[in-house]
Design goal:
The complex is a heterodimer of chains A (491) and B (250).
Chain A (H helix, E strand, L loop, with lengths): L1 H17 L6 H10 L2 H25 L2 H33 L14 H9 L10 H10 L1 H29 L9 H34 L2 H6 L16 H31 L20 H15 L1 H4 L4 H16 L4 H13 L1 H10 L5 H5 L5 H30 L7 H20 L13 H24 L4 H21 L2
Helix pairs in contact in A: 1-5, 3-6, 4-7, 5-10, 6-7, 7-10, 8-13, 11-17, 14-17, 14-18, 14-19, 15-17, 17-18, 18-19, 18-20, 19-20
Chain B lengths: L1 E10 L2 E11 L3 E5 L6 H8 L7 E6 L2 E2 L4 H7 E4 L11 H11 L4 H14 L15 H13 L5 E5 L7 H16 L3 E5 L3 H7 L2 E6 L2 E6 L1 H8 L4 H8 L3 H11 L2
Parallel strand pairs in B: 3-8, 3-9, 6-7, 7-8
Antiparallel strand pairs in B: 1-2, 1-4, 4-5, 9-10
The chains are: A mainly alpha (491), B alpha/beta (250).
Amino acid sequence: MLEVVRIMYKELYYQMLKRNPMLSEEKLIRSTKKFSIKRRIATTSAFFFIFGLFLGGSAILGDRYVISTLSVTLTLITFVFTFYATAVNSSHAISMGVFEPLKFLPLRIQGSYLSQLLILDSIPCFAASIPTISIIATKYPVQSIFLLLWVLLGILVGHTFGLMVLAFFGVRTSYRRTKVGFLRATLKIIGLILFVGGFYALSYFQRYISEKSSEFAQTFWKYSIFFPFSASLIFDWTKNLLVFSVYLILFVLLYNFALKKVWFGIYEPKVFSEIAKPSRFKAGFGGQMTSLVKKDLRLVFRKVSMAVGFFIPFYFILPQIFMAVKTGKFTKELALNLVCMISFFSSVNADIVLRVESKEVEFLRSLPLKKSDFVIGKVISISIVSISSSVIMVGISSLYDTTSILVLPHSIFLPLATSLLTMYLLYRYGSEEIGIPERSTPKTFLLFLANLLLIAIVAIPAIFSKVNGWLVSYSILIAIFLILLYKIFRL
Amino acid sequence: MIEVKNLVKNFGNKIVLDGISFKASGEIYGLLGPNGSGKSTLMKILAGVIKPTRGIAMVAGFNVLRNSLDVKRVVGYVPETPILYESLTPSEMFDFVGKIRGIPKYELEERIDSLARAFGISEYMDQFIGTLSFGTKQKVSVILSLIHNPSVLILDEAMNGLDARSARIFRELLFEFRNEDKTVIFSTHVLPLAEIICDRIGVIYGGKIIAEGSVDELKELVHEKNLEDVFLKLTESKEEISEILDALRF
């Protein structure tokens, strides 16, 4: 079975490289021949390990509270990464058709192939927790084992959630484009956002009970029992083992259920039969650019599991918005902070809009389409959700603090600038051909860093400069935006 | 008009096209050759999809190396297997390509409607491409190559999967196309079809054009009565086939 998974993984890798215009046929063959799953996992793990070193540093001098918080952070990181990797990669693997050749072979193929294929990309995130676990082990050996178990559970929960998104929100929304189908797809997107927000709702529910209930309830709810906050229980042996065991049993059951459902959907897709009526073709609105963006958004939102990536920033900003609204302290500084956070994730959105192009890149190459137009189209597709959510968020903030309106230019141009920077860094290869550059983990880390730097350059004057700080920030932002736009047009 | 001079394409150390030269103008030019002979690579170069390693290829007066965007504007290309966005409907796909090619809305609607009716896909217009049969996908691919009224058509086994009705309509369209002095490069493995459709044929083998001419000229060249025998003789497969068949008789 491992051999089959290895072949499928290699095929995915090959297809990914094939779309990369920087690789000649010779290099493509050489890289594919040299490809090793172990080496790939080791390289990605090394980056996660380095990232984990920064986190682990605080465990050296940290007290029990710091270590508990670190446990939650590490469990959350593995959970979010595995969730993203499973939901997005599964959709990608299916659209690449890697399972199709297996259907004709005398193999007893089962869901575990899918699971193993997807988990290979999630394993490296475990490396982020190694430094912290090792440091804790020197002071609290038992707690380090608990943390290890919670991190591993984070992988299981993230993987299961990714499979559940695929199982319930589907790979394809419907058989044909209808108004009902559109409504169903919209409901699925709303469902997905609620699904993402579910954790926070539970957490809020717990806090609410803790505030309002009697002494008994307060004692009972003193500890976070909702995943991933439950990882903070590592210093409470009994509760930790109890809550951990409940989650383990629950998610093993859910995992089996979701995997069977997904695998059945892949192996024997539902065949619809309906009477089709001839229809007249009606051209849509807009020109070349609109058409490129419409195409991207259709492809992303019709594979709802792909849309997961678009909603990753919401994981981080929703609780802060919620708290700001609740306390009435929605300042312009917070609004700017949230715009920065949304913009920071443009490389995740870039990954999504590039993944929707698989074998179709060759089709695009047969069209009279310039590389710069293609890239600009992708930039708009990446930024559309970020800009809309930033502008809405600034609008809400200005209801509480009218000066928040100062953040409006940032809410439009900062997500655009980070998207432009991401795409410029990915597409500055020499060839004028349209292609999909490889987005390895090291490269993704570098993109994150580059965006972080851009955000810092723009945001720091607005927050810290005493004289005309906002004007300085606008000027820097517009200058960066124009330079990047110019660079992209010259690609 | 297509003019190819000493065209070379290497993939690493492998020579796929080895100095190919030919001309085609206002005709249906057939490209025949065994699998892996370089037909599809040649067609991709002519469609501006990939670049040659060396040599010159002019399509409708544009150099594929320097003016690939102009080449793509005037060429209609059908790849050997339909490459389409499976989550889009044919209607959305036509709209997308129509907009990329800058076809005015009214013109696009009229053209798509008549082509969709001609190829019998009107009832599939709102169905996701991923759920269509191979033949219907191929029809979508064929329509996509025709929507901008190209002056050159490059068809890589474009008849594959088409039903008899659509194949006949497509064939007639190709004849009309030729009568308008436009050029078609047509590859197929169905030799009787090539015999009916093509005005001239180039046999490509080992990355080279080893014979060229009308069907009658080719028959005369190797003293054979039908195109299949001509092809097998030119590609040195005839005797090999007899030997293989002998070996297979257990």
